[in-house]
Amino acid sequence: MPENHGGSKQDFFGTVGGIFKNVGDAVNDAADKVGTALQDVAGKATNIVNKGKDSVIQAIDANGSGEIDIEDFIILGLRTPGVGINRADFLRAELKKDFSDDVIEDAIERTPALAGISVDMINKHADQVIEYERNCVTGISAALGMPGGFAMAATIPADIVQYYGFMLRAAQKLLYLYGFPEIDVSEKGQHFDSETLNMMTLCLGVMYGVANASKALIAMANALAKGVEKQLLKKALTKGTIYPIVKSISKWFGVKMTKQVFAGFFKKAIPVVGAVVGGSITYLSFKPCCDKLKDSLKNTILSNPTGSNAIEGEMILAEE
């Protein structure tokens, strides 16, 4: 298995801690305030906890919506060095062990499938990517949960951010192996493209089995294979037929994110039994999510031009 899979594990571990710590420090400060305040009379406790909760939202609310949602964690993840994957660099590093330079460059220019790389070989490399990213996320998750790691509630958002950060890394790599073009993960000023955020939301929706997410992603792949114009696809993601699905996924994650953050936050602020996501739980949960995305991608026209399981992409064009 290639050693770096599009990025150095050591370099990534070296830089990721600082990013997570920024989020963690802010939430930890909020937790300290809540913990101190709860020692006061019961009549003041509710007000102080609400203020602490507002502080947590402010620390995590990367898109400025006033709420905790999946877009916040995508933005925080993409701002972390090593999470954004360059398509050409990744494919060269991933495929060099098994294929000639000519085949690899053709895969970059077009798609791995059109370059003659079999579905079985693409699946093999996809499995290696999933295993590599799972080992990485498990290592950091375990470290965050150790005594002497991030203090108190700081571990909660840090653990969630790093978990979704590695999911974003895995999603990009799988998209590129199965024939998707480059995704713009660069930040322009303080903003990422809506198209990028919605595409990542869609991938996470597939990973968690949210309704219609897989069909939407497969339809996009087939539309790309048929040469549908980029602007039309962008419109479908941001205004057209795919957009309502993305919004539905975001709503589903919004509930999930709020529960994840504040369940952990109050378990730390108010001393009761509770802990961050452990390394073993992370290890078991990460692969099934990635496998769902792999299964959605491996039988599209982009990844398997001769396959019979591809779903037609005309739904994207219906409203356009």
Strand tally is 0
What kind of sheet is the major sheet?
none
Percentage of helical residues? 55-70%
Query: What radius of gyration results from the CA coordinates?
Result: 21 Å
What class do helices, strands and sheet pairing give? mainly alpha
List unreliable stretches of 5+ residues. Answer: 37-46, 146-156, 265-277
| Residue fraction in strands | under 5%
Number of helices: 12
Mean pLDDT over the full residue set = 76
Shape: globular
What report would you give on this structure?
Helix 1 runs antiparallel to helix 7 (155-177), helix 1 (9-37) crosses helix 11 and helix 3 packs across helix 7 (155-177). The longest helix is centred in the first third of the chain and has 29 residues, at 9-37. With 320 residues, this protein is mostly helical. Residues 37-46, 146-156 and 265-277 have low confidence and may be disordered. It contains 12 helices and no strands.
Looking at this protein, list some descriptive labels.
12 helices; 320 residues; mainly alpha
Write the layout of secondary structure elements.
Layout: H1 9-37, H2 42-60, H3 70-78, H4 87-95, H5 101-109, H6 119-145, H7 155-177, H8 194-207, H9 213-225, H10 230-238, H11 243-269, H12 279-297
Report a brief summary of the structure.
This protein is mainly α and 320 residues long. The protein has helices at 9-37, 42-60, 70-78, 87-95, 101-109, 119-145, 155-177, 194-207, 213-225, 230-238, 243-269, 279-297.
